[in-house]
Amino acid sequence: MIDPPEPAPTGVLGPPEDLTPARLPVPAGLGRLLVLGVVFVCAACGLVYELELVALATYLVGDSVTQASVVLSVMVFAMGVGALLAKRLRCRAAVGFGAVEAGLALVGGASAMALYACFAWFGQSRSALVGFSLAIGILIGAEVPLLMTLIQRVRRQDAGGAVADLFAADYVGALVGGLAFPFLLLPSFGQLTGALLTGGVNAVAGGVLVLWLFRRDLTVRARWALLGANALVLALLATGMVLATPFERAARQAVYGSSARVAVQTGIQEVVMTGGTGGGAGARPGRKGSGGPLALYLDGRLRVSAETEFRYHEALVHPAMAGGPHHRVLVLGGGDGLAVREILRYRSVRSVTVVELDPGVLHLARTDPGLSRLNRHSLSDPRVHVVTEDAFDWLREQGMRGGGRRPAPYDVIVSDLPDPGIAASTKLYSQEFYGLAARMLAEDGRLVVHAGPPVERARLYWTVEATVRSVGLATVPYRLPGRPASFYGGPDRAADPLPLVDAEVPAAAPSAGRGRYWGFVLAARHRPRFGLAPDAPPLGGLGREELEAGRRGVARGRILGLPASTLIHPRYLG
Q1: With contact defined as beta carbons under 8 Å apart, do 276 and 267 qualify?
Q2: What percentage of residues in the chain have a pLDDT greater than 90?
Q3: Which are the catalytic amino acids?
Q4: Residue burial 340-366, b: 16+ Cβ < 10 Å; e: rest
Q5: Contact between 237 and 148 (Cβ < 8 Å)
Q6: Residue 480: DSSP 8-state
Q7: Which secondary-structure segment (H or E) carries 240?
Q8: Which of 308, 309, 383, 440 is most buried when burial is the number of CB atoms within 10 A of its CB?
Q9: What does the alpha-carbon distance between residue 440 and residue 408 come to, in Å, rounded to a whole number?
């Protein structure tokens, strides 16, 4: 015989808070709309934090593919952890959500400033990047369970409908945040102030929802605690916004030294210039009032040093000018005007076309006293025509033109582009890119490519060479003693570091034994003659013997059988 179940005791246990209807100051329909509005705002802020971390990590550390993968994977994992942890807060969802939003506003808003501080004063930011990705992900992950509880307490509905409404508001908010970051926050406020402003919006949205809409769920103590926490967070974020400019100035001085005299965000990259205010093109250290030799940094990577850039540009340009006519020359990149300076030293040059992506660099090359003196005002020469466009897109547009509109072929093409090891540059070292460039060459024309360090990153260098060969061009690889390109922004403070430089910055006294070389690839439809042209001007840092030694030396390290890099399968990263 089965005993009947005992009746449940009455008046002892009520429904937990996460099931009781909330006492709202507005009708339930309006309250539900307000909750969905806060979901929208929080989702937008959360995506801005993610994009901010990816953008800043790419700038500080380099390799955007790796940094985006690390940030996004850690954050998604952390969101799962946060969702599990939030289960313990559902019994007091309003208090829990208020605390989570205050913490997220502070951590997310201050993340950019904290990462930049770690980079500037401690020399690395990878650990901080992972830590902030983890913390922000946990807090974002805790939002959804708590918001689901709150929206159900406003008005009960089936779980599927509630989830659909919640995620619809979340995804639309993420869309708005994703578009606001590159088109509004970054150009209007910059990385630091943009993140702080986003944190302020986040704190206000969370505070309004909890302290006003769900205020009757809070005890007096909880209300005052959340009010104080939100006020403190807003005060800290406002202080950060006030101090953002002096903080950035101090951090820049820690990275570049006290001689940084130009710092602009062009919309393409950050451009910083130090030194170069003396009377000569490359002011020597110790010269009174010179501020040292000119140095040009692009996104934290040292791109030009006035002390030694002439060796790089002579090695890049003059071998390509040999072996045939050089009346028409195309320069891909080279917005600093230094490669053009070397090209214009040949009297037979009739026209030079420069295709540069960043108009800010072109403006500085024309107007900055130090840089324009260094490039000898080359971009103002009447033979020079400047196009502000992506080199890949420009080559493709020229190739798609009809026969009558297509420009005459070029005798020499100089590819003076950022290093192939930087993710954003991989398409400019692809098989498709070189195929487009080859179509622009005259029958006896030559193409020269800066191909990265041939010893320190030999596989990268020989992949560039294999990719050039894959479009039917014969190649002559060669090298010149100098420093290998850097893949990290700013100075390296690790023990016994390699001096941190980029493509055009060699050692003052390079040591071949330590493998510090620039690598180049000269190419043509038929094997190009290697050397210097009969009408070559006097060169200060390059001779025929050194060029020949560079050709023989680099050949000893050849790596055979490497596949070409393509747009679909880039092979320069990792």
Answers
A1: no
A2: 63
A3: 416
A4: bbbbbbbeebeebbbbbbbebbbebbb
A5: no
A6: E
A7: helix 220-256
A8: 309
A9: 8
- Check residue 317 and give its pLDDT: 96
Query: Could you tell me the CA-to-CA distances from 216 to 29, 223, 236 in Å, in that order?
Result: 18, 9, 28
Is residue 103 within 8 Å of residue 215, measured between CB atoms? no
How far apart CA 551 and CA 309 sit, in angstroms, is 20
What is the distance between the alpha carbons of residues 448 and 217, in angstroms, rounded to a whole number? 71
Give residue 278's pLDDT: 64
Distance CA 555, CA 478 (A): 8
| DSSP E strands, 114-232 | none
Q: Could you tell me where the beta strands, DSSP code E, fall in 161-237?
A: none
Structure tokens at 221: 């103590």
> How far is Cα of residue 314 from the mean position of the Cα atoms in its chain?
29
In whole angstroms, how far apart are CA 379 and each of 236, 262, 361, 385? 47, 20, 12, 8
Query: Hey, what amino acid is at 170?
Result: D
The closest alpha carbon to 489, from 165, 56, 140, belongs to: 56
Classify strands 474-481 and 384-388 as parallel, antiparallel or unpaired. unpaired
d(Cα 434, Cα 395) in Å, to the nearest integer?
10
Read off the pLDDT band of 574 (50, 70, 90): low
> Distances from the Cα of 555 to the Cαs of 458, 477, 479, in angstroms?
11, 7, 9
Among 562, 551, 364, CA closest to 461: 562
Question: φ and ψ at 472, to 5 degrees?
Answer: 90, 15
* Continuous segment of H or E residues that includes residue 211: none
Confidence of residue 141 (pLDDT cuts 50, 70, 90): very high
Tell me the C-alpha distance between 369 and 280, whole Å: 10
What are the C-alpha distances in Å from 492 to residues 111, 119, 121, 358, 498?
A: 22, 10, 11, 26, 8
Closest CA to 478 of 513, 437, 432, 529: 529
**Neighbouring residues of 269: CB distance < 8 A, sequence distance ≥ 6:** 298, 299, 358, 360
Can you read off the two tokens belonging to residue 198?
């986003």
Length of the chain: 574
Cα-based distances in Å from 210 to 108, 229, 435, 512: 20, 13, 60, 66
Confidence of residue 291 (pLDDT cuts 50, 70, 90): low
More confident residue, 287 or 426: 426
Closest Cα partner for 299 from 10, 523, 479, 60?
60
The edge-to-edge listing of strands for the beta sheet with 301-305 is 260-265, 270-274, 295-298, 301-305
Mean pLDDT across the chain, nearest whole number?
86
Task: Indicate the residue type of 52.
Answer: E
Tens digit of each residue's pLDDT (9 = 90 or more) over 361-380: 999 999 999 999 999 999 99
- Residue 385: beta bridge partners? 353
> Which candidate, 528, 401, 420, 399, places its Cα nearest to that of 484?
420
448-471 confidence digits (pLDDT tens):
999 989 998 899 999 999 999 999
**CA trace torsion 541, 547, 553, 557 (10° rounding):** 100
Higher pLDDT residue, 10 or 288? 10
